[in-house]
């Protein structure tokens, strides 16, 4: 993209980090074709939504619109082939493609030449003279260097391991699991073409596995990670490892020896190989004799694969088979994810020899990366430089955001590795003489500190407890300031890692901070929570720019000399100017206002609604703050209030005026300032019937704000009153901000701002009340408590456990928590090795000061007591149960779900096998069941802003019924997301899901299938195989499979989704009703009526429980059940269910609603059928076998009718449109938006209004459609 130098430099960096151990994909993703495709297809449609604030959209369009062209590639030993490339690509991306292709993947050390000239790796193709459509590029083998030889061996090892899932189970190199292909038997795209598109029913086995049937109590774990056929890898070699003869002695170096490898082939031949500048050859060394002379024959080959092909027939056969399989896999199964995802279960795996892994563990990974120039990376410099990249137009912003994201994910990976090294004791402290919990560490240019209250910093806030919460609060602050992205204001790279019961904060290092004392450095804020406070004009100016978006009020505080100091943040937010001259802010733990529900303050009365519910409650620390989302919701709520108040006053004024003057028509006199405006589309005009009133307020507010002298005093007063009523800090416009220092221990305010402080206190109380009365009344279930409390108890019990006893400690803990076995006994780690000498000095090294084996004496009773008191202290929730077994009964919890939750939260990985939780004869877990312990990592997620805007305007267009435009915008968003994030990311997942839904609605089923398949794979890889989102993606994919007549696949996917739901939530969950309706409908479609009824009747029961037996969802459920009974010719049951449904429709929607009419028609039809059947039966009874029988109509449902019902329950509507309909549709959409708004503003809907969501028409080919957000019933 444009910007040659920046591009060159960045690209240079990327190339270097491309081979970076964290396995990060190069440039944009690594499935080379996938990633390049994104750029090739990039189309900018200069829609006004693209970025209204930007001029010059047209120039931006051109930059991205260069079309691709084709070049021919000629590589040694194979036929020339064509490759599609795009002008913005770099030469280097062609390298990546060649290293991934099946027939050229074994080459790494080559150059590309055009007419004998070597192309520069970092040149963009469009800058190369003479390169055009049809040019011939030659692949020329280049001499090796030590670095190139290492890269080559590493690449070959990656190819050998490409199907092996062990990296994903071990959570390394950004690999993660995906099981979709197990359920779709390979790639959906191809099988779709293979199966005949006919209505004829293929014979399929529809029987679900026993354990997923409604009512089954079994919750097997092994099914979570089914064995994949491809995993039994084809063995190509027994051993490939670095030889003990490395490095080559001086005289051999001068012969060109770079390094030596040792290989054992499958045929059991032991060989020594020399990597030389000219390539690889066999030498005459053995394990004990060094003889570097070439063997005879030596088989000199430029690539290691060619050499091995010659000495091992098995290698030759299996390696080529392996590569075939590798390239057949969907790219999304193998591209690295941007952040590591860990699996909480894994099968038993053999530990295989692996030279690269062994070398990484001890050399390049501890502290420096060998093949990156400049050794360690200066993380702070990289993080800040990428922020400073220009951002004036779209290409610049894309380049900048891509750079920010890339550095960020690299930093997160490095910080995670460092934090683990620190806790595992592999890093020396920078203050080794202090006691352990006060130690700080530097590793790989990252600063690490532990979550303890060092030097009584947090004494007034709750000590160690507060010190444990502060890092996550600080991270939220960093996230927020980064999102506001003010030029010239810098934050630190920050990652919070929980590992083995400790919390570690990793931060990039401000240049120069280590050389000076903190007191000298801080020129803004306070290092002692508000005793000494300083300020600085430059910081005030920078922070002022963030104050509006972050709703932070500028305020004055008193310092220890009683001087007033002006701040625009909380006091402990510090400003430090680094040696690089940048203005850094750190310690952002109180960016958001405190939550007064958990901060009782002497002599302060809380609002009634808080007191009613027992608040404020004493909490164990004083750092509870409101989330940014809550602050935004509160301000939004206040804005609506402000508009309504002002509108009412204006109406009253107007009424008075009209009475008094009479002559003035409509009160629309110019000076009155309330001229009826035409803006009935104003964003909040929808809330009140009195639309024009609100508009006048809006206009008035804008006029006053622009300080225009034309507004009469009366109207000014209207706005002033409204401002005062809602707590705005300005009296001429709506502007709500919070002072983050209110109620902060130790902060004092000057007399002069007494009134302001009073108002601020009131505002905080209102926000606390708003949280309780408006936001929380959503669904709150108590399941989380036991888990979180046990997790906290667990974190404490793990601290100080020696590494050698870790698996024993964890399994003992899990037994105490989840096993019904009454007295589990812990095994102390003395089993394997007994050391006679006890070393006295080791005490200090351990981070806990308690006895290291205290965990061994823990009993289930004691643990349960801890959990209960934790739940009481932290959540003020009383677990009225004797033990975990009883809690599971009372709260309807599943132990397997609890096990999953606690493993995910603490990072434990357990063996994949069936666990018996209920045996009273032996404990559930042994130490062999604990496979690993992973870090739990929290970090900032940088955003792709332009892509996100496209995505949002696409969504808006779709909701207004403009599908085609919406679809284009979302495609555009997808391209931009790919550009910034690479191929794998949560937001790309959302994008693909929406695209698939649009494809489906617009009738393009196969495209829907392909996009949804990507969404499922990506969700499995990025969020986890049983994440709630993944379960939903599986359901959508099943629907599209069904529409593509792949019925057995659709069922497999639905069964998988149900299995995951059962494991993660259990049967008792409102979403289960939707899932079971889907399964029931598909089974109905394949005429498995009895099975179908089991699922549909379960769905009916769940819907009745959660939505009430009179809800429209339940009516729809009754109808679905009735249809199955009709197919079974059990008309009495069918009638009974349809009547129930009819009654609900009649009561909720009234006689004349089309739903009610439809239901009544269906009832008539069923009655006729029932009568006909009865008549026939009577005839048979009367006349015996020679009765004259009328043929009865038994209807097996048509696929179309099943699909129609599937669309209804999944909330997808098709609407045949005429011009008139289009008008109505627009009105309908507006009405719906008003409904949404009014729901937001807290007005409850009457049931009549629900009817809107119910309308559905015949599924004719849609010219437009409305995807509803919820399922439509």
UniProtKB/TrEMBL annotation:
<dbReference type="GO" id="GO:0005737">
    <property type="term" value="C:cytoplasm"/>
</dbReference>
<protein>
    <recommendedName>
        <fullName>Clustered mitochondria protein homolog</fullName>
    </recommendedName>
</protein>
<feature type="compositionally biased region" description="Basic and acidic residues">
    <location>
        <begin position="34"/>
        <end position="50"/>
    </location>
</feature>
<dbReference type="Pfam" id="PF13236">
    <property type="entry name" value="CLU"/>
</dbReference>
<dbReference type="InterPro" id="IPR023231">
    <property type="entry name" value="GSKIP_dom_sf"/>
</dbReference>
<feature type="compositionally biased region" description="Basic and acidic residues">
    <location>
        <begin position="1247"/>
        <end position="1258"/>
    </location>
</feature>
<feature type="region of interest" description="Disordered">
    <location>
        <begin position="659"/>
        <end position="690"/>
    </location>
</feature>
<dbReference type="GO" id="GO:0007005">
    <property type="term" value="P:mitochondrion organization"/>
</dbReference>
<feature type="region of interest" description="Disordered">
    <location>
        <begin position="1237"/>
        <end position="1273"/>
    </location>
</feature>
<keyword id="KW-0677">Repeat</keyword>
<dbReference type="InterPro" id="IPR011990">
    <property type="entry name" value="TPR-like_helical_dom_sf"/>
</dbReference>
<dbReference type="GO" id="GO:0048312">
    <property type="term" value="P:intracellular distribution of mitochondria"/>
</dbReference>
<dbReference type="Pfam" id="PF15044">
    <property type="entry name" value="CLU_N"/>
</dbReference>
<feature type="region of interest" description="Disordered">
    <location>
        <begin position="189"/>
        <end position="213"/>
    </location>
</feature>
<keyword id="KW-0694">RNA-binding</keyword>
<feature type="compositionally biased region" description="Polar residues">
    <location>
        <begin position="659"/>
        <end position="675"/>
    </location>
</feature>
<dbReference type="InterPro" id="IPR027523">
    <property type="entry name" value="CLU_prot"/>
</dbReference>
<comment type="function">
    <text>mRNA-binding protein involved in proper cytoplasmic distribution of mitochondria. Specifically binds mRNAs of nuclear-encoded mitochondrial proteins in the cytoplasm and regulates transport or translation of these transcripts close to mitochondria, playing a role in mitochondrial biogenesis.</text>
</comment>
<feature type="region of interest" description="Disordered">
    <location>
        <begin position="24"/>
        <end position="58"/>
    </location>
</feature>
<dbReference type="InterPro" id="IPR028275">
    <property type="entry name" value="CLU_N"/>
</dbReference>
<keyword id="KW-0963">Cytoplasm</keyword>
<dbReference type="Pfam" id="PF13424">
    <property type="entry name" value="TPR_12"/>
</dbReference>
<comment type="similarity">
    <text>Belongs to the CLU family.</text>
</comment>
<dbReference type="InterPro" id="IPR033646">
    <property type="entry name" value="CLU-central"/>
</dbReference>
<dbReference type="GO" id="GO:0003729">
    <property type="term" value="F:mRNA binding"/>
</dbReference>
<feature type="domain" description="Clu">
    <location>
        <begin position="357"/>
        <end position="599"/>
    </location>
</feature>
<feature type="compositionally biased region" description="Basic and acidic residues">
    <location>
        <begin position="676"/>
        <end position="689"/>
    </location>
</feature>
<dbReference type="Pfam" id="PF12807">
    <property type="entry name" value="eIF3_p135"/>
</dbReference>
<dbReference type="InterPro" id="IPR025697">
    <property type="entry name" value="CLU_dom"/>
</dbReference>
<keyword id="KW-0802">TPR repeat</keyword>
């Amino acid at each position: 993209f444009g910007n040659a130098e920046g591009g060159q430099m960045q690209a240079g960096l990327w190339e270097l980090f491309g081979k970076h151990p964290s396995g990060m994909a190069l440039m944009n993703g690594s499935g080379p074709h996938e990633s390049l495709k994104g750029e090739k297809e990039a189309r900018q449609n200069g829609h006004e939504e693209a970025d209204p604030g930007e001029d010059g959209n047209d120039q931006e369009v051109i930059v991205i619109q260069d079309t691709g062209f084709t070049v021919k590639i000629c590589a040694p030993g194979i036929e020339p082939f064509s490759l599609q490339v795009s002008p913005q690509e770099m030469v280097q991306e062609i390298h990546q493609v060649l290293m991934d292709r099946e027939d050229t993947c074994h080459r790494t050390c080559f150059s590309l030449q055009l007419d004998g000239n070597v192309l520069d790796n970092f040149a963009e193709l469009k800058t190369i003279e003479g390169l055009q459509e049809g040019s011939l590029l030659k692949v020329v083998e280049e001499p090796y260097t030590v670095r190139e030889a290492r890269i080559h061996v590493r690449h070959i090892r990656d190819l050998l391991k490409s199907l092996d899932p062990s990296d994903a189970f071990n959570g390394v190199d950004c690999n993660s699991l995906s099981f979709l292909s197990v359920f779709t038997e390979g790639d959906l795209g191809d099988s779709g073409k293979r199966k005949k598109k006919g209505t004829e029913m293929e014979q399929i086995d529809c029987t679900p596995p026993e354990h997923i049937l409604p009512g089954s109590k079994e919750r097997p774990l092994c099914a979570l990670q089914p064995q994949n056929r491809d995993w039994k890898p084809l063995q190509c070699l027994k051993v490939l490892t670095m030889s003990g003869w490395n490095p080559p002695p001086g005289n051999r170096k001068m012969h060109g020896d770079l390094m030596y490898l040792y290989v054992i082939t499958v045929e059991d031949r032991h060989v020594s190989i020399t990597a030389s500048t000219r390539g690889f050859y066999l030498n005459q060394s053995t394990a004990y004799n060094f003889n570097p002379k070439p063997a005879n024959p030596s088989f000199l080959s430029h690539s290691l694969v060619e050499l091995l092909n010659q000495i091992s027939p098995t290698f030759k056969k299996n390696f080529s088979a392996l590569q075939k399989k590798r390239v057949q896999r969907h790219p999304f199964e193998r591209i690295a994810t941007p952040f590591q995802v860990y699996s909480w279960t894994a099968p038993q795996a053999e530990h295989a020899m692996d030279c690269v892994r062994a070398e990484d563990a001890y050399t390049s990974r501890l502290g420096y990366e060998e093949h990156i120039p400049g050794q360690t990376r200066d993380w702070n410099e990289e993080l800040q430089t990428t922020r400073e990249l220009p951002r004036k137009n779209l290409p610049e912003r894309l380049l900048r955001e891509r750079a920010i994201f890339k550095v960020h994910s690299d930093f997160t990976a490095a910080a995670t590795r460092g934090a683990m090294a620190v806790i595992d004791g592999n890093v020396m402290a920078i203050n080794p003489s202090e006691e352990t919990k006060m130690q700080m560490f530097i590793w790989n240019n990252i600063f690490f500190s532990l979550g303890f209250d060092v030097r009584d910093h947090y004494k007034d806030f709750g000590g160690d407890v507060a010190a444990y919460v502060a890092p996550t609060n600080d991270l939220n602050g960093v996230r927020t300031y980064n999102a506001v992205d003010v030029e010239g204001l810098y934050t630190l790279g920050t990652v919070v890692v929980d590992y083995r019961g400790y919390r570690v904060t990793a931060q990039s290092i401000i240049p120069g901070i280590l050389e000076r004392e903190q007191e000298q450095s801080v020129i803004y804020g306070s290092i002692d929570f508000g005793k000494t406070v300083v300020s600085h004009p430059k910081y005030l100016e920078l922070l002022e720019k963030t104050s509006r978006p972050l709703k932070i009020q500028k305020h004055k505080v008193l310092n220890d000399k009683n001087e007033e100091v002006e701040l625009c943040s909380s006091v402990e937010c510090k400003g430090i100017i680094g040696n690089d001259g940048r203005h850094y802010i750190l310690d952002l733990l109180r960016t958001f206002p405190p939550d007064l529900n958990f901060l009782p303050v002497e002599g302060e009365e809380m609002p009634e609604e808080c007191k009613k519910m027992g608040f404020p409650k004493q909490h164990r620390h004083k750092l509870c703050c409101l989330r940014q989302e809550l602050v935004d919701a509160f301000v939004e709520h206040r804005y609506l209030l402000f508009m309504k108040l002002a509108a009412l006053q204006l109406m009253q004024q107007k009424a008075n005026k009209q009475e008094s003057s009479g002559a003035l028509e409509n009160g629309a006199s110019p000076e009155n300032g309330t001229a009826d405006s035409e803006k009935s589309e104003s964003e909040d005009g929808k809330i009140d019937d009195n639309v024009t009133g609100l508009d006048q307020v809006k206009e008035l507010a804008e006029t006053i704000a622009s300080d225009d002298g034309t507004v009469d005093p009366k109207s000014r007063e209207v706005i002033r009153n409204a401002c005062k009523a809602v707590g705005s800090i300005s009296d001429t416009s709506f502007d709500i901000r919070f002072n983050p220092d209110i109620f902060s221990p130790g902060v004092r305010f000057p007399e002069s701002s007494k009134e302001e402080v009073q108002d601020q206190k009131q505002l905080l109380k209102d926000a606390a009340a708003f949280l309780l009365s408006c936001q929380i009344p959503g669904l709150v279930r108590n399941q989380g408590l036991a888990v979180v409390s046990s997790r906290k108890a667990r974190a404490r019990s793990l601290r100080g456990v020696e590494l050698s006893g870790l698996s024993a400690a964890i399994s003992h803990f899990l037994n105490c928590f989840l096993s019904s076995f009454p007295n589990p006994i812990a095994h102390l780690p003395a089993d394997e090795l007994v050391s006679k000498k006890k070393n006295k000095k080791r005490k200090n090294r351990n981070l806990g000061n308690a006895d290291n084996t205290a965990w061994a004496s823990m009993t289930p009773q004691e643990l349960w007591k801890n959990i209960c008191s934790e739940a009481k202290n932290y959540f003020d929730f009383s677990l009225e149960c004797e033990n975990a077994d009883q809690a599971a009964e009372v709260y309807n919890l599943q132990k397997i779900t609890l096990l999953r939750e606690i493993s995910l939260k603490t990072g434990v990985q357990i063996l994949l096998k069936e666990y018996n939780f209920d045996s009273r004869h032996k404990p559930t877990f042994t130490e062999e069941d604990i496979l690993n312990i992973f870090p739990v990592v929290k970090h900032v997620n940088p955003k792709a802003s332009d892509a996100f805007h496209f995505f949002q305007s696409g969504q808006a267009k779709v909701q207004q019924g403009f599908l085609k435009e919406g679809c284009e915008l979302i495609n555009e968003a997808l391209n931009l997301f790919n550009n910034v994030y690479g191929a794998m990311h949560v937001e790309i997942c959302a994008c693909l899901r929406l695209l698939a839904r649009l494809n489906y609605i617009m009738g393009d089923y196969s495209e829907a299938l392909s996009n949804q398949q990507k969404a499922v794979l990506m969700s499995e890889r990025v969020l986890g195989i049983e994440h709630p989102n993944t379960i939903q993606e599986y359901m959508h994919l099943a629907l599209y499979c069904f529409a593509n007549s792949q019925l057995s696949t659709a069922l497999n996917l639905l069964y998988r989704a149900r299995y995951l739901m059962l494991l993660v939530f259990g049967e008792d969950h409102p979403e289960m009703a939707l899932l079971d309706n889907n399964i029931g409908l598909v089974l109905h479609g394949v005429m498995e009526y009895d099975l179908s009824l089991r699922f549909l009747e379960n769905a009916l029961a769940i819907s009745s429980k959660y939505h009430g037996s009179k809800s429209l969802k339940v009516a729809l459920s009754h109808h679905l059940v009735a249809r199955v009974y009709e197919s079974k010719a059990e008309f009495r049951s069918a009638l009974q269910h349809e009547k129930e449904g009819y009654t609900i429709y009649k009561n909720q929607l009234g006689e004349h609603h089309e739903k009610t009419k439809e239901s009544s028609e269906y009832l008539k039809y069923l009655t006729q059928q029932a009568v006909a059947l009865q008549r026939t039966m009577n005839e048979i009874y009367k006349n015996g076998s020679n009765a004259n029988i009328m043929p009865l109509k038994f209807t097996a449902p048509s696929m179309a009718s099943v699909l129609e019902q599937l669309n209804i329950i999944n909330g997808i509507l098709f609407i045949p449109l005429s011009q008139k309909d289009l008008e109505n549709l627009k009105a309908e959409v507006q009405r719906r938006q008003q409904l949404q708004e009014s729901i937001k503003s807290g007005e409850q809907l009457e049931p009549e209004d629900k009817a809107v969501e119910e309308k559905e028409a015949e599924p004719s080919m849609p010219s437009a459609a409305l995807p509803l957000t919820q399922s439509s019933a």
